User: What shape does this take?
Amino acid sequence: MINALSFDLEYWYSAEYVSRHISDQDKHADQIVQPVAQILRLLDKYNAKATFFVLGELAQKHPQVVKEIFCKGHEIASHGYSHKFLGALGPEQFADQTAKTCQILRSITGQNPIGFRAPNFSVDQSTDWAFRILKEHGFRYDSSVFPLKTILYGVNNAPVSPYSLSLADFTKPVPDGDIIEFPISVLKTRFKNIPFAGGFYFRALPAWFLKIAIKKINQTRPAVIYLHPWELYRHTPQINSIPRFHRFITYFRINSALGKLESLLRAFKFGPLREVLHLN
Assistant: This one.
């Protein structure tokens, strides 16, 4: 089975618990070129392909980086324009930024993106208007639903397997729906869904548990892994002035992520989301 591998291509200061505490003066070197080059070398080593959900404003500043990713055979998808929560944007501004990001990515790759992931997984019942806008702009799949409620995001009653959704209720699978949803992978147990597939959870959990979780999921469906370049780069700035809990969530075991990713690349076959969803 081919699992989906994805990277949210954003700045190191885009992380929610960093961005809310630092000023523009703190946003020195954006550190995009080197972390992406490191990821591409690793993927080349294992002949693996992935989806890169790219911020529009980042693509505007670093078109050559996005072009290199695309030319190596990876999928370029949208991560929005400015990494703001969808609720903070509202429908009108989200529609404008979606169109802008599509135009930027199309100018680099020559293709319209068909996949979207909301910044901070900020899709829930209060922002379900986003799916209508995505459909209007030609998106065929979304990977924003986190099927577990957390402090920042999540939808408790969402399915855990990829499904075709209806604009009337994005948590209800329907035949021939408007958009395919590829929810973030969680390990479903009798009592609750256990997150493991990216971010803090990926860094906090041991590699052997990640492998067990993927094997368990692969009994019925493909898994999707999500990571950020700043989590894989040992020179990522760590801001010590942010609150202790926020610093813990953002930086805990940050030096372990690259090794774990390589361990998974040795153990499993990965591809872009559009390939796993048979949307090529």
Observations:
- The chain has one domain: 2-276.
- Residues 2-276 form a domain with the TIM Barrel fold (CATH 3.20.20.370).
- DSSP finds eleven helices and twelve strands in the chain.
- The first strand starts at residue 2 and ends at 9.
